[in-house]
Amino acid sequence: MKRLPASWQRRGVLTAMGAAALAAPAIARAEASRRWRMVTSWPRNLAGPGVSARRLAERITKMSGGRLEVEVFAAGEIVPALSVFDAVSTGVAEMAHSASFYWIGKLPASIFFTTAPFGLDPTEHQAWIFQGGGQELWDELYAPFGLKGFLAGNTGPSMGGWFRSEVKSLADMKGLRIRVQGVGAEVYARLGATPVTLAPGDLEPALERGAIDAAELLAPVNDVSLELQRQAKFYYAPGFNKPNGAAEALVSRSAFENLPEDLRAVIANACEAEHSAGLADAEKGNAEAIERLAGDGVRVSLFPTDVLTAARAAAGDVIGETAAKGALSGRIVESYRAALDRGRYWASLQAAMTRQLKSA
After folding, report:
1. Report field, pTM of the whole predicted structure over 0.70
2. Distance CA 303, CA 84 (A)
3. Mean pLDDT, the chain, integer
4. Tens digits of residue pLDDT in 238-253
5. Are 240 and 311 in contact (CB under 8 A)?
6. How far apart are CA 41 and CA 201, in angstroms?
7. What is the distance between the alpha carbons of residues 232 and 216, in angstroms, rounded to a whole number?
8. CA distance readout (Å), 167 to 77, 312, 356
9. How far apart are CA 348 and CA 356, in angstroms?
10. Closest CA to 129 of 254, 262, 16, 247
11. Where are the domains of the chain?
12. What percent of the chain stands above pLDDT 70?
């Protein structure tokens, strides 16, 4: 066969390259048709988790070059705040932004992927998820529902909550109607209080009407945005129920697995980046918000010792009962407790070092 002149061969290569270049925008346009809906458990742009939800959607859209566009829907716009798990599981939406302890009713061990009373702090929890087997257990727990969870934001350690009346001793817990989530609800019940489940956006009006006597939400910067200080002037610490504030991105496993590998990596990395950004926001925002609250006449106080002692004992009992609810629950509790034990000495040493450095 007669060889084509070299110049023609080069021209053919260039023509092929040009055709590929022309085809690339068409491929990109086709891939841009991937649009996901993210339902959330938060009012739109709620300081902390609401902002994390918005930023996560923006990160995924930008990092994918527009090939995967994520639209955010606030609580109630498609489904109620506490229905996002079922919405993603049944295909109403491809993903959600929430907190795993909301699913305690159907999955008692889900709480550990957000927080547990007297448990891991944000850094310890992240280490457990990424390095201590936590992610694998999380995947196993959610697999029957067709879901995958990712850490995707963190509001840091929480406060103990807002109280309309002063807490002077454990006796003041008797009959107290308090909005509280997760295992903390059972802990408060064992202290004599009456736990109430309410979405974040309903707390301020519930306090105003007297439907509840106290409300535990998150940390100062989140609480201020909901104006809870208008209805309750006693603000207690520590937040023994929520020493960590991890948010989760719930993703449909089938939708996730149908993505090309690079877009799956985009979602995972966007979630990890938002977890870091959320913690940075929390540290700065909480420092500013707590000073503002103190200046506005809010009484920031520590819980009485007898309240904390009783709460710790009750939490140990409840977590032990959670472990007994199934083989997987038992393995999750065992792994979580092992992570807590491993980090206990280092955590106490860090705390001592921090105090000494700041007082020097």
Report:
1. yes
2. 34
3. 89
4. 999 999 999 999 999 9
5. yes
6. 10
7. 11
8. 37, 17, 31
9. 12
10. 247
11. 29-155+244-284, 161-242+298-335
12. 91
